[in-house]
Amino acid sequence: AQSVTQPDIHITVSEGASLELRCNYSYGATPYLFWYVQSPGQGLQLLLKYFSGDTLVQGIKGFEAEFKRSQSSFNLRKPSVHWSDAAEYFCAVGARQTGANNLFFGTGTRLTVIP
Amino acid sequence: DGGITQSPKYLFRKEGQNVTLSCEQNLNHDAMYWYRQDPGQGLRLIYYSQIVNDFQKGDIAEGYSVSREKKESFPLTVTSAQKNPTAFYLCASSGRTGSLNSPLHFGNGTRLTVT
Questions:
Q1: Which residues on chain B are in Cβ contact (under 8 Å) with A109?
Q2: Which residues does chain B have within 8 Å of residue A43's beta carbon, measured at their own beta carbons?
Q3: Could you read off the pLDDT of B65-97 as tens digits, one per residue?
């Protein structure tokens, strides 16, 4: 069975500092991996996705994530955080065979950015 | 602009009443989904539909019902049988039926409060 763990419930960083949000997954084969961002009271927006190939994927808003099979991780990074990055971030894993209807979401990490 | 429209943004109901949440998309997507989001939890799948006039239960379908009479519309009814209906409800769609190559697009959600 698939599962996703985001070990950090809440992270606070200073504007301009680097950011890394952790995501660990459990899945028997090579998964589809996603990061989504949610602003308060809004829906989720896709930041980036990994299906295959290069394990370092680039996304929107200057985010990137690295797939590490040996660690079952897909951590999200940004070199310099902006105040507008304050939001909740969700990692998700999907099974290739069953598509988006079998997408499992982590519990989210809330990011606070301080001036 | 193409997108997903959920209405209303806020909904208040008395316990024991059924309530229907609207979801309309103009992305020409085949598949549509309903998720429930509670504080500190990830998204949980309620129902999904891959084609018109067909839908399947997700992980937490009890107390909910849906219909898919048109490709653009996927309304969700929260019935009085749902024990804890107060939550944030998100509708999503994806382009290709059951394919993760077409990631989820989300609406901005409806916050339902039942007292």
A1: none
A2: 4, 6, 90, 92, 106-109
A3: 999 999 999 999 999 999 999 999 999 998 865
